[in-house]
Amino acid sequence: MAKCEVVIVGAGPAGISCGYVLAKAGVDVVILERGQYPGAKNMFGGIFFADQMNKLIPDFYTDAPVERFVAKKHYSILINNSEISLNIDSEEHKKPPYNHSYIVKRSVFDKWFAEKAVEQGATIISGTTVEDFVWNGNKITGVTATTNNDNDNVLSADVVVCAEGANSMLSEKAGLRNRLSMRARCISVKEVIELGRDVINERFNLTGREGAAYEYFADATPGMLGDGFIYTNMNSISVGVGVVISEMYGCQHPVSLNELLERFKNNPCIRPLVKGGKTLEYSAHMIPMDGHKNLPKFYTNGLMLVGDAAGFVNNSICHEGVNMAMASGIMAAETILDNRQERRYDVRALRLYERRLKNSFVLQNMKSSRDFIDILRTNKELLNDYPHLMKDVITKFFEVGDVPKSTVKRDIIRMIRSRMSFVKAAKTFAAMMKGGI
Amino acid sequence: MSTAHENQLGAPERQKNVFGEFLSLDDKLYTVHRKPLKASHIRLDEHLCIECLNRICTYICPAQVYVWDEVKNEIDVRYENCLECGACRVACDGIEWANPAWGAGIVYKSS
Fold first, then answer.
1. Contact assignment for A107 to B111 by CB distance below 8 Å
2. A87 and A218 co-located in one domain
3. CB–CB contact A276 B89 (8 Å)
């Protein structure tokens, strides 16, 4: 039976950050990763929010395999075959550190980050699937894993950090969360399409290492709570859609996720951006939608949850996730370092971890957007009726013709009155401001 | 008008894009590198499947691992196509899903 000080399950941003900090402090830390290499099973939409990374490894982007930095943001509402969009092309975001937003390929980037942790002295064992925790009474004392050697292995540790990701089965086994509900997870699919650097620069109006992040709402996922996205890598683009699983349940005419993606790609507003090219890879991943109200317990005797496993994704319009994952990993590491002398990692000692989370942007941001998803789910007009109304109003307003503008204005006001309740809209807006964003 | 939205509420239908290129789901799944699985990592409670009205597994899975077999009257599990997202496990209580042992399964290179 092997033994080390700290075992981390999963080499994603949360797990590697935790390992990095611990290794740097001289702790004997082992990261177990089920992929063939760190990043082999990792996937996200495309933006790496890197403020935490920049603290850990200053100016990391000069060395790291970053595709592009996010110079242009584009939020769009798709209505049938029309589009109304907001383009954010901010000068400030084009200078280092580029608003801490970088487009990366996780299979490449996570590998690089893992190497940095190894340089600090962490041990990473890939191709190892952790199956369960080892308990001694009510305390977790290690993990069992299957390895490349075809043997069941036990690795004991003073404390375990679980960074298993969104498909949080181990956290369920540890009793820290219930079986995932359909509302608690979004399912996303994405396709990476090779287009070539010049084509991308031309289509998205970019130069040099500038990148674009396009987000589409409303009919990107018709009638369902979700969104569509396009992110530019250097030579390829990532295009994908995501939907909350509960929204797919009980559909009268269910459409598969691949079908949703194909429809999104074939929308006349999207098609010119993604057409042609060669599909390099198709991938799928879940996104935590736990929200502040349904977060799991973050720790128990001998165990802490970090990153997606703990549900740390801000589901509001910014959907920050990676930075929160890294911050939680770092805070778990700091908690371990605080308790290292006594080697006591029981519930009492690890309470410090939760206190750190509460005092940081991680739980504070989760709290400030606590109602966002609920508001969207219970007010379906926000993603359906209102966008359609907005499109009709704008289309009508800009219509060229011999109808006097006063008549147009009157018609528009009638249209708005008949299709939207001001009282309800005001209430929704107030709720959004209070606990939505 | 494109067919993309006329079918919005209709039955799923395979489409070509405007250039007549058509990438089927099988073609897409073929782009994913894998370390072959030695055994299925998915177990089904087959009694539930027969009575299930929804069969959400047949459309929630991005890789279409679950296909209803009309002849055998059961779900055919094509586990080797699995992208390891775990959505099926969340959507259906009758599905027992485990991470593939020995780190087998998908190996992303460009995602």
1. yes
2. yes
3. no
Structural domain of residue A341, as residue ranges?
Answer: 2-67+105-177+296-368
Regarding pTM above 0.90, the answer is yes
Residue B66 domain flag: yes
pLDDT digits (tens, 9 = 90+) for A302-311: 999 999 999 9
- Residues in chain B with CB shorter than 8 Å from the CB of A148 are 102-103
Can you tell me the ipTM of this complex? 0.92
Query: Which chain A positions have a beta carbon within 8 Å of B18's beta carbon?
Result: 266, 271, 275
3-state secondary structure of A26: coil
Could you report the per-residue pLDDT of A243-299, keeping only the tens digit for each?
Answer: 999 999 877 788 899 999 999 999 999 999 999 889 999 999 999 999 899 999 999
Q: What is the pLDDT of residues A358-391, one digit of tens each?
A: 999 999 999 999 999 888 888 888 888 899 999 9
Q: What sections of A131-194 are H helices per DSSP?
A: 169-173
Any domain includes B49: yes
CB–CB of A281 and B110 under 8 A? yes
Chain B, 13 to 72: residues with Cβ < 8 Å from chain A are 13-15, 17-19, 23, 25, 27-29, 31-32, 35, 54, 56, 58-64
- Are A202 and A337 found together in one domain? no
pLDDT score at B2:
37
pLDDT at A65 > cutoff 50: yes
Phi-psi region of A136 (alpha: psi -120 to 50; beta: other; left: phi over 0): beta
Contact (CB<8Å) B62/A245: no
| Chain A residue with Cα closest to B52 | A250
Give the Å distances, CA to CA, from B9 to A70, A77, A219, A226, A261. Answer: 35, 19, 12, 17, 15
3-state secondary structure A68-114: EEEEEEEEEEEECCEEEEEEEECHHHHCCCHHHEEECCHHHHHHHHH
Q: Which residue has the tokens 């059961």?
A: B74
Residue B64 Ramachandran class (φ > 0 left, ψ -120 to 50 alpha, else beta):
left
Q: Which two tokens stand for residue A331?
A: 């805070």
Please tell me which residue of chain B has the smallest CA distance to A179.
B90
Residue A373 lies in a domain: no
Q: How many domains does chain A have?
A: 3
**Four-residue CA torsion sign, A226, A230, A231, A237:** positive
Report how many domains make up chain B: 1
